[in-house]
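JOB MANIFEST
job_type = single_chain_structure
chain_count = 1
residues = 427
[input]
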Amino acid sequence: MKKTSPRLRPGIDRRTVLKGAAAVAAVGTAVTGFPAYLKAAGKPIKIGMPTILSGRVAILGESSVAAASNEVRKINEAGGIEGRMLELVTRDSRAKPDEAARMTRDLVNNEGCEIIIDAEASGASFAVNEVVRDMKQYCIHTNSETSSLTADPKNQVPWVFRSCRQGIHDAVGGGLVAAKVAKEKGLKRWATVSPDYAYGRANTDEFMEYVKLFSPDIEIIEQTWPKLFQPDYTENVTALLNAQPQAVYSCLWGGDLVSFFDQASLYGLFDQFTAFAVNLGDYPVLSAIKSRPAGVYSGSRYHKDIPNTPENEAWYDDFMAHSNVLPTNWAWQNAAAINFVAEALKKTGGDTDTEKMAAATTGLSINSPFGVDGTLTLREEDHTLVNYMVGYSKTIVDEPYVVDFDQTAWSEIYKHEGEWKKRNGYA
């Protein structure tokens, strides 16, 4: 796959995406929290977006910007919100939590951003969460899957929301599929290889918890924890080869997952056991792996056939027509965030006051091609996303790369999520 630059495509600046009428081209700085009637006529609503635009996982950050800017374009071409255009202002955090926090403050204080879209990975999202808590700044987290970010009451903020999948949801869905496969194939000896930070540890623990719940006779015989963004996985591959498991789980992601798969394939690793990789299903990841193994179980990320609806296919076609990058899991989550923001702004009459936006967003449902029934909801109780597609597919070598999607019913997810929250003191 051709590597794209953070500028995305000619005519779109990485720091600022503004589409709409010429009347809004020359604007001043917005002041967060002023009511709509006090704002200058035609002044754009600035949306600040810290994300990862350099390094090995830049493909995910670039797809986040591409998706968000495309939704901004469509909203502005339709007339904006109460006559005001949306403007997207992005920053490259380089996946560093301190940079993400600093840039969030800068986006609000110096760029005049009235809304924050936190398009960071988990480590940085926790840092951003504290910044927007202190600043009383309306924010939607769009990429972090670490469950405690919104599940743990200590982390919950009245004006902060989450438009991305939650690890516990994938864990239930993955556990159900993995347990079924384990029983069919007699997979009792398991190993894991996941990144050594909050997301990797929590996601892996949750997945294995549910595999063992649904298939109690399995055991974990080896766990290896590569550092985030490390270049060489020889030590981790060797640990797996020495352990001789029957099945392996990984939540490596982005460029790290590509590097691991490429290096592991040299040792014939995927010929020796059944693999489950929750983050494998993204187009850029699958297309970047030099020797794609067939038969790996991949968690649902983004795919134009999942769900297999005209609306999802149309969204994919429109995205590809306006972007030089491929859509990812982060892409649809950021697209959803922009649409949640737009709907909330319609309810407030274009007023970006934090408390008004929070009230408008709490429990909000939108029409979306990414929902199970064509809708997505930001759940009232914990401000997190529900009703998106959850399940696992199997990989094939060539396009469409994944087939045989096994969808998890949300009734199952709600049941086990509720029990999980009680066990962890979250409910």
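[summary]
The chain has 13 helices and 16 strands.
Confidence is low (pLDDT under 50) at residues 1-34.
exit_status = 0
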